[in-house]
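help with this:

***
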Amino acid sequence: MRFPRPGGPKADAPWIAGPRGTPRTGIGMVSGSYPPMRDGVGDYARRLFEELTRQAGAETVFVVTTVCPGSEPDPRVHRIVGKWNLPGVMRAFFLLRRLAPRAVLVEYPAHGYGRHPAIAFLPWLIRLSMPGVKIVMTVHEFPSHSVLQKLRGVFGFLMCHRLAIVVPRYREAIGRWVPWLKRRTVFIPVGATVARHAAGEEVLAALRVRHGLPSDAPVVTYFGVLRPGKGIELLMEAFARFRMAYPSARLLLIGHALDSFRRDRLVPLLGRLRLEEGVLWAGRCAEEEISAYFGLTTMCVLPFTDGFTPRRTSFMAALEHEVPIITTRPIDPFPQMAHGENALLVEPGDAEALARQMVELQGSPALQARLRSNAARLRACFSWPGIARQFLEVLEERPQESAGTRVCASQAPGGPDRSLDGEEEGP
């Protein structure tokens, strides 16, 4: 079977390509999730949409996403897809045809798509029937997927002009399936999905009163979903050791906890460690409240069981608020992160080493100040203006290295010649 060549004679059929001479302007974004839906990919799509809108000038930027009852109306956000099955994907495709963007950015995967494979057909529909439209798919996850999920992803990747990967090692994982797709990948990092909001002293004082926090109590914060694989149990064991040195300390847990995980594993563990009074459950919070909690934070501890990667939005949120961070060592080379300079790093699974780093950080105001100051510089690597600029450069087919990449490289120990990516491949 031979597919019609994109842009060839058959692609000009009126039923496929729409009216002749239709000018293509603007940028369309497709995301299965979008706020107020609870999904990190949706939060990412919102921040990218906002920054692209600021930078794209007179161009229109719009979003095609899932129906969400109760959401605030926005003429730029088209919540038209009930389910992302084939009829739902066709509904999104026909809207894209009607709005005629010059480029389409697809967020993949997203919780809103569900498990249906139809989303993988969208790049094919666009490529074969909307000549001249550039397709860029952001790949938020791939190596951990099942074989069937990977097949779905690769099928969609085939028709994309570029694949924006959020972790450099995704290039090799994709290349094991289709080697030449490696040449289409470009590393564009994620940014913080929680914006920083100013919280006055009155707000912080009210939070301290609500939780019974002494003014001098160290606050160790974890931010993110509380579920297996996040290192929560290890953090509690390390915090029990830390609290022996600082009895007034509190462990603040910000984020939704899976009911079964909290009931069956966390609550019994707190009982064994005698930490019931030392843990504060903030739960799922609004963005402004999260920002206020970071204002109370002495240190943010993120002991990922499989190591740090650049797609950790909880790390980006802590970085956005310039709090001292302790996390696990990167599983991939990441020269911008230096132990003792912009974060403290421990090996995954080592509660004793984690506790030692917490005690060292609490006892050294100079180390806290250095981590805060250098976190502000590392934050430039993951700024939304830089991320949006890289996407716009990809759409314009400029050289792969962008201003955002050069900023990150300049922060790496050893100088500006070290790139975030570690490997550059052309289109």
